[in-house]
């Protein structure tokens, strides 16, 4: 549970066993932590930030002592500060703002897909899918299109993604991005534009606005939170379609199923496998004693296969599943702030992709990222089959 191999392989059988036999499971690896696998328990913990704090970080424990981050990001802030920060930042993620991005997102997706040719082997994860979320974030921030490739290189290096063309260390890339963000902020200080940075600079709740440091730390979080996650959803979602050709056929024949297919990909793939909390006092859960200071790892991927919620088809991939109350975006106070944007990106991607290509064939091995939290696809080679005689979805 503490190693990438667990997530890169098929964790479903282990999850099933844990949900059934040890839903609040102590493991002594990495200094010790509790693994939580049942849907109901993750909802319980996620909605009690006073008992289960995010302040010492949400990454899996690594055995090193953790203290609260002196310059916390939104994701590592507890209430009441979290509520205030989240209210301010939410101003940039209203449904109106997100929906208004659809034409830009469609143009970005089309531009990326224009480079894909039917019948020719191509690398899909790094070469195609990864370009979409990072360009959308750059566009959201108002970064000019000529900067996008540079922005992507810094962004990938700063989150540790191994593009063969990247020679920067993550520290150097983080520094370069900080300088770049500072310049964007300075430009917006002189003149506001129609972009997220301008909205966040003007955001005010109860007479309070974001400090410069808070804005900077949020811009960095945006890259970490919105980049690999969306890429992982689309790449692993595509593999789920390859593995279930009858489901792919249903989508090609009826693209109105794409929104529910995206929900099912989120549930089935669970692009973010877990997040961690830290107990602020002793808590009893299912007869187990969680002690103050201990780490609790919320295994969202396990909750998303919970038979108590998803019935006896929990292990199946069904693009028509409804309702689908998955926890792929987390739950409670810290539930994903970018979920509408992520849903929109994935929907538009598959609408455009399936209008052009109605067959996907894997032509080699799928190479995964060695990560416990977002064990995405590093590379996957595919051959695409051209869809015949269908107009692109508008
Ligand atoms: C498929 C794509 C995505 C998945 C699966 C995902 C998943 C998650 C999860 C599980 C959390 C909960 C964190 C916790 O429990 O502590 C989260 C938080 C967050 N996500 Fe996403 N995310 C995705 C895309 C995005 C995008 C596109 C953005 C922004 C552009 C974004 C921004 C955030 C932010 C800012 C938070 C922190 C919210 C808070 O702490 O209040 N995410 N995400």
TrEMBL record:
Gene3D superfamilies: Cytochrome P450. Pfam families: p450 (PF00067). CDD domains: CYP142-like. The keyword Metal-binding applies. The keyword Iron applies. Keywords: Heme, Iron, Metal-binding, Monooxygenase, Oxidoreductase. Belongs to the cytochrome P450 family. This is Cytochrome.
């Amino acid at each position: 549970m503490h190693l990438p191999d667990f997530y890169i392989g098929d964790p479903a059988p282990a999850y099933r066993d844990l949900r059934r036999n040890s839903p609040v499971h102590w493991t002594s690896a990495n200094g010790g932590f509790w693994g939580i696998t049942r849907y109901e328990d993750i909802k319980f913990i996620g909605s009690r930030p006073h008992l289960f704090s995010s302040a010492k970080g949400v990454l899996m424990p690594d055995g090193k002592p953790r203290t609260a981050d002196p310059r916390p990001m939104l994701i590592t802030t507890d209430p009441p500060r979290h509520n205030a920060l989240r209210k301010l930042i939410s101003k940039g993620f209203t449904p109106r703002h997100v929906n208004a991005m659809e034409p830009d997102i469609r143009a970005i997706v089309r531009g990326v897909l224009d480079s894909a040719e039917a019948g020719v082997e191509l690398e899909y994860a790094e070469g195609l899918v990864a370009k979409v979320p990072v360009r959308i974030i750059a566009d959201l921030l108002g970064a000019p299109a000529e900067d996008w490739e540079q922005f992507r290189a810094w962004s990938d290096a700063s989150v540790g993604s191994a593009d063969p063309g990247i020679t920067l260390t993550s520290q150097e890339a983080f520094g370069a991005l900080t300088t770049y963000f500072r310049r964007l902020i300075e430009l917006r200080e002189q003149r506001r534009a129609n972009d997220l940075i301008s909205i966040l600079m003007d955001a005010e709740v109860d007479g309070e606005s974001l400090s410069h440091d808070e804005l900077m730390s949020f811009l960095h979080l945006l890259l970490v939170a919105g980049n690999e996650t969306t890429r992982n959803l689309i790449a692993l979602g595509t593999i789920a379609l390859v593995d279930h050709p009858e489901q792919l056929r249903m989508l090609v024949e009826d693209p109105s199923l794409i929104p529910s297919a995206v929900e099912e990909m989120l549930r089935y793939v669970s692009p973010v496998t877990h997040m961690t909390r830290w107990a602020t006092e002793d808590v009893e859960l299912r007869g187990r004693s969680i002690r103050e200071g201990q780490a609790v790892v919320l295994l969202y991927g396990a909750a998303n296969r919970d038979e108590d919620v998803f019935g006896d088809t929990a292990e199946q991939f069904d693009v028509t599943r409804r309702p689908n109350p998955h926890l792929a975006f987390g739950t409670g106070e810290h539930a994903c702030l970018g979920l509408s944007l992520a849903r929109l990106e994935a929907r538009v991607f598959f609408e455009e992709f399936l209008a052009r290509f109605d067959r996907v064939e894997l032509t080699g091995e799928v190479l995964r990222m060695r990560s416990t939290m977002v064990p995405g696809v590093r590379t996957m080679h595919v051959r695409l089959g051209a869809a015949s005689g269908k107009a692109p979805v508008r």
